[in-house]
Amino acid sequence: VNVYFDNAATTQLDSKVLQAMLPYMESHFGNPSSIHAFGRKTRTAIEKARKNIAAHLNCSTAEIFFTSGGTESNNTILLNAVQNLSIKRIITSPIEHHCVLHTLDYLKQHFQFTIEYVKLNEQGGVDLENLDTLCAGSNEKTLVCLMHANNEIGNLLPIQEAAEICQKHLCLFHSDTVQTIGKIPIDLQKTPIHFLAGAGHKIYGPKGSGFLYINSNNPCKPLLYGGGQERNMRAGTENLYGIVGLSKAIEIAHQTIEADTHHMKNLKNYFLKQIQKQMPQVTQNGLTGDQSLHTILNLNFTDFPKTDMLLMNLDIEGICASGGSACSSGLDAGSHVIQALDLGNNSIRFSFSKFNQITEIDYALNTLNKLLLSSVAQ
Ligand SMILES: Cc1ncc(COP(=O)(O)O)c(C=O)c1O
Asked: What are residue 145's DSSP bridge partners?
């Protein structure tokens, strides 16, 4: 058996995405900067991809820049904030992705700015009143950096409310939307966001492909210098087939968003309902119901005896889940999110894709029963 429940780490490439990419690996290989026919062919594909992504976000094509993924997009925004946009204060949370938190640690050593952390409630939800108070608390130019969905526990930020709070206090707002692009629609004409980040591999697209939205009122500088690619915002020959794949992945995601959401909500709700029926000690970490992203279910087995090695035992039984984000899984210090919320030592993230089936949930439930209930009987 091979059941893949680690889709928040990465997803399987959709075969339709692969089909869209293949011609750009085989025959359409020109450098998009070349002015001859080969180059024009691939330049057209890149600009078509940009137009497609801009249309899905309802922004201008000039505001979309292709990057290597979420990490690069978040790094670019945060560096620009303190280096070029005169940001003197960043309001964020302790449960952002490491590509935000570690970048801030680094920037703090080199630039003059302060970091303030918004209050989280017991489930890790952002306290919007506290956000409002913090935003109002200083006249210094401020960036608010809060992720749309937490990749470990699935908590959703009420993004419209958060954006409006930022707007009211003239703070810039960056949201790491890596987990929600293609899963929760965002209309940038309705939601006042200045920056956002996306990655192809979370939505059945290729790894190493991503984008950055920069509101046109906030001109930024590149992270990489060299050629004039991406209108001087990101030097280096474009990841052509990555960009084509990313665009196709976003297109498919938007075409099937309703059916996919319905399917994954069903999987998640069924898993949760069944496990709580069979093992009432198990609880859900983080926010619940509609305040939690439909692809992520983080379960807490802490009150269950014999949960050590649970993740490894699941793996042996052919079930791939995760103890934290991909970069903090395994045998290291554990998840900073779980630690920040004081959730104990035995949390497992099950994250779903459109390819998962209910029979796989049943298999996981049977396996958990076997691993956990059998140990109680002994
Ligand atoms: C919320 C979030 N932000 C950023 C990233 C980093 O994205 P990437 O792996 O494309 O660099 C990830 C995924 O690992 C993520 O889940």
From this structure: 174
